[in-house]
Give the backbone structure.
Amino acid sequence: MYKQGFYKETDRMIDLIADNYPMLLVTNRFGINLGFGDKTIGEVCRMNGVDAFTFITLVNFLSEETSVLSEVVCSKLSIETLVMYLHNAHDYFLNFRLPHIRRKLIDAISDCPEDVAFVIRRYFDEYAAEVDKHMNYEERTVFTYVQSLLNGKKDPKYNISIFRKHHDQIEMKITELKNILIRFYPGKSSHLLNSVLFDIFTTEEDLASHTRVEDFLFIPTVLAFEKTLA
Amino acid sequence: MVAYLKIAIAETSIMLRCGLENMLKHLPGLHIQIIDIGHNDILLEALKLHKPDILIINPLMPGFANTSVGQLRDETGLLQLKCIALLAAIVPDELVKQFDDYISLYHDFDEIKQKLEALLHAPDEEEPDEDETQNLSSREKEIVICVVKGMTNREIADRLCISAHTVITHRRNIARKLQIHTASGLTIYAIVNKLVELSEISVKSEE
């Protein structure tokens, strides 16, 4: 378990990371560079042009599991910052994490029978295609909509509630692959395969919390903003 | 078998909330997501938003005391919501009776786990033949083969001379035994266990 807590702008960034190392993924997605020494979270945010309130809210949201944010909090969040965060997360999953797991996985299963390796690879590729489709919809439709909303233009045919209704989890299938490998993998276990499984475990958690941010932080924030334009 | 559960804890004392949360997270075989509710003000909103399977609530929570469990289910639309009373003090029996069960401060891990499991498997649990997990019957294996070859439930029913309804029941049992819910997942299982040849399935998938 990671340490839970309410971080404040005046806490040191290094303490946040040391308490909870997956926060490195978060700082990365906000475009915050390493090398911040002993600076506080607020200082580091300002140095990197990141809205500190949004950063802190998201960090506390992620480390805490409480997921009900009041409308007052939502109205103070920066939508631009959230979109940047989500966009960078998509880029990370699609262009780094999944291809990286694929390469390692193929390597790890190279000594099991060719037909088994084939169906495992196919399973993974189908999954990656699904994630791609899911995230690309958000990039093209949702973020484009939100961008024009920020420019003061409402879309008569689209609103964030449409997205809210059909937004699904996306980690189920990779969880299933992991379980199949653990329960039924016919080859020898290896350090590499273990390492792939570790990667899948963390990716699973990362995807689940990504969905949580979209459902309980991003969507309510856009909803609140839609109301101000009404 | 790992069960996924969403549990909301409504209690004003952060110490109690965290303590219970910590215990729940350490229960083996249960994968629990916690929704933390510290005030009655956000109770309804949080329940509607997260739709938990179980609510563990202190019946004496300020603001909640006059609400009945039935009212809560109606107002949130969560008619299946299981409600457990969290007893941190002596509470009149009348108040506790309306809950599905209760947890007191001195219950240990096993007792809490038993209570959760009893609630989950409560009335309409379907044929619990848990013992023979993982081992598929020969009929189930036939069905796996058909699914992997891309046949629809109707086609499988015709092929095996059973009703489509029976096919669905078999598929549900297969999914439960193997913990595999997708056709691509079953394909891996079928190939690993040599139920089918790769040549029999890759042709179909090109269509």
Notes: Residues 77-229 of chain A form one domain. Chain A touches chain B at residues 1, 4, 64-68, 70, 115-116, 118-120, 122-123, 126, 172-173, 176-177, 179-180, 183-186, 216 (CB under 8 Å).
